[in-house]
Design goal:
The chain is of the alpha+beta class and 145 residues long. The chain has two domains: 56 residues, no CATH class; 68 residues, Roll (SH3 type barrels). It has a five-stranded antiparallel sheet. The relative contact order is 0.11.
């Protein structure tokens, strides 16, 4: 069985991109993302599928009851996305930042998620020049005014 912990990361990535591109249908977003992965992907039927069709298909997909849920473990990103204050966090969601250390020093990007609180707050940042995401400790970032 695949690791179910991957699901929140995939949904968060979809959420981030779709929020910045609200005119895309979900199927368009998935096909476009798959083609951006570097793999050859051709899905013309899927590309033109409407959101309503996907919702209907998902609702008909599986009527088995879900397994009992485990107690929810709060991830720091949940609080970060909601804008809650978190001790030790100096950056905010979608904040424009400059890389001040490491291999990306001098480049700029936007904070898209909080990955970890310990040993140091660590963020996922989308680089402006190429759109790739990197995971960087807070001490390597500086807010751009």
């Amino acid at each position: 069985m695949r690791d179910s912990a991957r699901i929140p990361a995939v949904l968060a990535a979809i959420h981030n991109v779709w929020k910045r591109n609200p005119d895309l249908r979900l199927a368009q977003l998935i096909v476009t993302a798959a083609s951006q992965s570097g793999r050859s992907v051709e899905c013309p039927e899927l590309f033109s599928l409407g959101d309503e069709d996907l919702i209907r298909g998902l609702s008909n997909y599986d009527h088995r009851p879900l397994p009992p849920s485990r107690p929810k473990e709060e991830h720091p990103n949940d609080r970060f996305w909601s804008g809650d204050h978190i001790d030790g966090i100096t950056l905010t969601l979608n904040q424009h930042v400059r890389f001040i250390q490491g291999e990306h020093a001098g480049r700029e990007g936007f904070v898209i998620s909080l990955e970890a609180l310990t040993p140091e707050p660590t963020f996922r940042v989308e680089r402006m020049d190429d759109g790739f995401d990197v995971v960087i400790p807070q001490s390597w970032l500086q807010a751009v005014e």
